[in-house]
Amino acid sequence: MAEEHAAPPWLDALWLIFLFGLALLPPIRELHKQVLLLLLGVFQILESRFIRVTGEKRGPVLAVLIKLTLAAVLLNHTHDVAPITSSYWPVFFVPVTTAAIYFRPLATLLWTTLTSAAYCSYLIPALQQFDLDWKGASELLLRILFFYLVAMTVNRFVMDYRFQVQRYQTLSENLADTNRSLRLAQAEARHAERLAALGQLSAGLAHEIRNPLGVIKGSAEILNQKLAASDPMAQELSGYIYTEVNRVSALVSRFLDFARPSQLNLRAEDLPAMLESCLKTATDQGATAHVSITRDYAPSVPRVMVDRELCEQVFTNLLANACEAMGEQGGELKLRIRPADAQVAVEIEDSGPGVPEQMREQIFNPFFTTKKTGVGLGLAIVSKIVDAHGGTVKLVSPPGRGACFRVALPIAQAAKGAQL
Question: b/e per residue, 113-135, with b = 16+ CB within 10 A?
């Protein structure tokens, strides 16, 4: 099969020198010979353009056939006795070499065989006038062997050259990809540094806000007690202040939970008991009032090495989200615990509307929320706590079939200390 021309450009110059040398050999004044050599030279120069016009599949085939035809015609105008005795027989190296440049080894052998057959065809009319002795047969065989030798040598050279070109192109593309990745990583690092500085500033600001919020909350409480009987409007307004201050204080606390690093207090814990404790907390808060609960715990679940307080925050948050997603009409809450490799997986699945496809990649991002009263830090804190334990948290349910969150935590033997 023909391939893209991959020979070095200076090879064309060598062919032109070869054809020019043939033009200077006798018979010099043979017009047909000079025209044929000129046609070969012009075609050699325009060969690349000819192949682009005729196509990469047909072009090389036509190029070899044209050169083979010109070489055969040239022998008819440069012989004294018979075309096969012409001293210009090396002109058949032109189509042979062209085939070696454009084709793979097997196709090169076929083209060389066709060229040898075209050259040997002149032997048929010559045998009608002359006898073929051993010396003549040996010389003819030697010329044909040279056709194959040149063809395979050039083909091997061209294949190696083509391989090196492809290798350097691959290396260049890989280097360009690496440079793009490096520039992207540098940009992301600078962005992360700015976000880290902003996070430190925001955490400090949130910490400072807590103190005046406490003063405002206490003052609203006292004001509400003092004005309870004298001014109902003032009492109502102080109640609004107290409620909103509590909401802002809770927001600040959640933000600090997300922003501030903490040392994990790792211990071997019983995961089913921990999940049941979190479920009891959700039940005491009334979250599971209209929910039926199905448990599927594997027997002999190994202990996990976790910070109990932080992991209870994880499961309480996920349970509250699941119950809230099912709404007042209620639904079914499924709890599953299964060992998996060096981890224990906990699945919390609800029968709510699920998470839309376009939001699945964003739900763990900070400040992303679909709730009117939410702040978008719940799942971000969950993800951060689980990552700190060397575990994973994923949304594993398909869109539109309820939400199923899988939390995988390392078992006690495989866990290692980490920082949040």
Answer: ebbbebbeebbeebeeeeeeeee
Q: What backbone torsions phi and psi does residue 68 show, to the nearest 5 degrees?
A: -65, -40
Q: Are 352 and 322 in contact (CB under 8 A)?
A: yes
Q: Please give the Cα distance from 409 to 341 (Å, whole number).
A: 11
Decide if pLDDT at 273 tops 90: yes
Closest CA to 218 of 246, 197, 192, 190: 246
Q: What value does the mean pLDDT of the chain take? A: 81
Q: Render pLDDT for 316-338 as a digit per residue (tens, 0 to 9).
A: 989 988 888 888 888 899 999 99
pLDDT score of 130 more than 90: no
Provide the 8-state DSSP code for 335. E
Mean pLDDT of the region 147-171: 89
Among the listed residues 414, 206, 225, the one whose alpha carbon sits nearest the alpha carbon of residue 304: 414
Domain edges within the chain: 10-132, 267-410
At 379 the pLDDT is: 83
Between the ranges 12-21, 90-99, 397-406, where is the mean pLDDT highest? 90-99
Cα distance between residue 154 and residue 164, in whole Å? 15
Tell me which CATH homologous superfamily contains domain 267-410: Histidine kinase-like ATPase, C-terminal domain (3.30.565.10)
Q: Coil, helix or strand for 60?
A: helix
Cα separation, 275 vs 266, whole angstroms: 17
Identify which of 352, 359, 293 has the alpha carbon closest to the alpha carbon of residue 322: 352
Tokens of 85: 């005795």
